[in-house]
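Methods: holo model generation. Sequences were used as deposited, without trimming of termini or removal of tags, and paired with ligand SMILES retrieved from the corresponding compound records. Each pair was processed once, and we did not select among multiple samples. The sequence and zinc ion SMILES for this entry were:
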Amino acid sequence: MRILRSSFNPIPLIALLTLAAGLAGAPAAQQPPAGPPPEGQGRGFGGPGRGGRGTPIKPGEECPPGTTEIRPDRCQAPEMPAPSILDYRPHSTLVTSGHPVPKAKFPAIDYHGHPMNLTQSAEGLNTLIAAMDSLNLRLMVSADNASGERLTRTLDVIRNSPHRDRIRVLTGVNLSGVGPGWAEKAIAQLEADLKAGAVGIGEIGKGFGLRSRKADGSRLHLDDPDLDPFWDACARLKIPVFIHTADPAEFFQPIDYHNERWLELALFGDRRYPASEYPPFEELMAERDRLFKKHPKTTFIAAHMGWHANDLARLGKMLDAMPNLYTEVGAVLYDIGRQPRAAHDFFVKYQDRLLFGKDSFQPEEYPYYWRVFETKDDYFDYYRNYHAFWKLYGIDLPDAVLKKLYYQNALRLTPALPQAGWPK
Ligand SMILES: [Zn+2]
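and the model returned the structure below.
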């Protein structure tokens, strides 16, 4: 395992440094000096005090752009132009047995479904259900934030189809213009939506915190007291609140060559949250945590593992401190699958607090989740290169934990889901 990891680590580093050199205006690769190498700088690298190849740096210093560390405190440029991070696509030479998992081992509930217009027609539903069947996804919870007329239209299509037990729908809440009188109206709409057949609220999107404005024009803080009656109504009505707050912390950081999400941020401009326009990541996290703590009787499900899948100890502390908090695993597989031992232990320890969800509906991507959760495979590809410059590992969850993650926890938190016919 150690060898595998260290063998793939330097690759993106070289490429990144080369890219850095290219973008900083430096030559893509510095050419080695012509002629035979000077005495003591040939094939060997020289021992201490004997000179050696490359450019020396001081301990703790970084190599100059376009070079990489070849021996302690010595940096060198490659002898040929290096590819950019876009073009470097090495084929792994690791030979090991792989166990792809096209279908989940147990029927699963996708709590973070975005079927979008597939729920708007009978044909769309047929397409959706065929894809779900191929994955052993028994139930999709549509988290498309639909309320009022849009919600009832969706529910009608579902009720009039042969697939009525395969989809349930969360309602949305309109968080714009919060101020005096907002809560009463929002609660009335929520009660109407639940009566129409919604099973909970969500997904409350990241706009809440980042962009939503109050009636007076100020930013709507996640823990704004004007919202309190609404969250209390959710507790009274016994429905979970599925909420996505902010985005990965790196999206709020400077987009330099130390940012793990450089490529994604360079590809998608709307994922950048410059400090000049948006509150810092930690401010949003603090507001979110105060919101969860302020309403201990309301069940909150933090989407995307609260963006702390890269810091499981932090997420564990939150779950310890807030018994009303649950979390969902959508779109953070790259963080789960890069720490197979820690993630295994975390999923076992917090097995009653985790829900499966996928986020964007791409049927071909679900099997990566099944493989990470169900196998102990080593070093396999992730489905989106720009998310992660690394491979995934299986975390080998026991069956009892898989069942909780895939369906039991969702059923327990959401009484209005179809409760019959699941494996014990
Ligand atoms: Zn979502």
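Residues 112, 114, 143, 203, 244, 359 surround zinc ion (CB under 6 Å).
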